[in-house]
Amino acid sequence: MNASYSELRARARDSLRGNWGKAIGGFVLSMLMAAVVSLLNYLIPILGNLVGILISGSISLGLISFFLGIARKENPPVSEVFSGFSLFIKAFCLYFMIGLFTFLWTLLLIIPGIIAALRYSQAYFILRDNPDIGVMDAIRESRQLMIGNKWRYFVLQLTFIGWAILAAIPFGIGYLWLCPYISVTQAHFYDNVTGRSQAPAPDSF
Q: FRET label pair with 65: which of 19, 51, 88, 188, CA 20 to 30 Å apart?
C-alpha cells in the first residue's frame, strides 16, 4: 500500500528522532568532501574535475547507505558516508551510466530528462541493498520500481518547497536539518515502493 506524502515525512521524523545530530554530521561530512573537491577543482581544474567524476558515485552511494540506515533505525555510524568507496567501480559505473542516459534523454527535451532522472532515482538504493547486482540490472530494477511512481516521487520533492524557503533564512543554516530530512524521507519512499512495510508514525504534518 502506498504511503501518503505526510506519512512518509512522518516516518522520516520518527527515524530522525534522537538521530538528528548524527544525520547532520553525516551530511556535513559529505559537504566537506565536496568542498575539498571544489577547492582542488579551483587550484588544479583538470585534476579536480577528474577526481569529482571518479568519486561522485561513491559519495552518492555512501550517503544513501547512511540515510537508509537511519530510516531503518539501524544506527549507522557517521563513517557509513564513506561506505560507497567499498564498491568504487560499481558506484562509478552507476554514476556514469545514469548521467549518460539522463543526458541523452535531455537532448530530446528537458521534460524527458527529468522523467529519466526520476526513472533511475532508486538505482543507488538498489545497489546498496544488493551489492552483488550488476550496474545495468540496478538501473533496470529502478526503472521497473518507478513505473507508476515517478509522479508520486516528483510531487514528494515538491512538498518540501515551503521548508526549503524557510531553511534559506538566515544564511541557509536550516539546510543542515532539511537535507537530512529530505534524504531520510526519500529512503522511506524506497522502502515503501519495494514493499518494505512500516507502520506510519503518529504525527503527520
A: 51
pLDDT of residue 205: 45
Q: Is residue 15, in this structure, part of any structural domain at all? A: yes
Element (H, E) at 3: none
Give residue for cell 556514469.
96
Cβ atoms within 10 A of the Cβ of 96, count? 15
Rounded-to-integer distance, Cα 120 and Cα 141, Å: 9
Angstrom distance (rounded) from CA 188 to CA 46: 38
User: If you write DSSP's letter for every residue of 38-49 in order, what string do you get?
Assistant: HHHHHHSHHHHH
- Counting other chains too, the contacts that 73-78 makes at CB distance below 8 Å and 24 or more residues apart are 73/15, 75/19, 78/22, 78/25, 78/26, 78/29
Q: Is 61 in contact with 124 (CB distance < 8 Å)?
A: yes
Distance CA 115, CA 117 (A): 5
Domain total in the chain: 1
pTM: 0.90
In a domain, 204, yes or no: no
Q: Cis before residue 76, ω within 30 degrees of 0?
A: no
111: domain range?
Answer: 5-193
Residue 187: inside a domain, yes or no?
Answer: yes
pLDDT digits (tens, 9 = 90+) for 144-170: 999 999 999 999 999 999 999 998 887
Residue (of 141, 97, 135, 100) closest to 119 by Cα position? 141
